[in-house]
């Protein structure tokens, strides 16, 4: 598994993105990233906020959104600003 992970990482440096979206042509290094992207074309956002009805592609994003309804701020990565509902 470690060799596979290293090979995938090296593809970033070589700018090899073999997984192509059939709708828009955008390319991805990993197949799961393509699957996440395709949800934008299909409109399938399975995680719906029970309070306001807004939908999200990832559960993590819904969790961060729910913090706002509770009057709390998400935790933020100091390096890139990504938001998280929990530290775990």
UniProtKB/TrEMBL annotation:
Keywords: Metal-binding, Repeat, Zinc, Zinc-finger
Cellular component per GO, a single term: nucleus
One Pfam family from the record: zf-C2H2
Residue ranges constituting the C2H2-type domain according to the UniProt record: 19-46, 47-74
InterPro entries in the cross-refs: C2H2-ZF_Transcription_Reg, Znf_C2H2_sf, Znf_C2H2_type
GO MF, one example: DNA-binding transcription factor activity, RNA polymerase II-specific
Protein name, per record: ZN574 protein
Native source species: Calcarius ornatus
């Amino acid at each position: 598994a470690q060799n596979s992970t290293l090979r995938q990482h090296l593809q970033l440096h070589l700018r090899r993105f073999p997984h192509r979206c059939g709708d828009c042509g955008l390319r991805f290094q990993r197949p799961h990233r393509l699957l996440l992207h395709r949800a934008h074309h299909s409109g399938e956002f399975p995680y719906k906020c029970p309070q306001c009805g807004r939908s999200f592609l990832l559960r993590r994003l819904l969790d961060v959104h729910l913090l706002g309804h509770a009057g709390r701020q998400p935790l933020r990565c100091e390096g890139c600003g990504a938001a998280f509902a929990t530290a775990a």
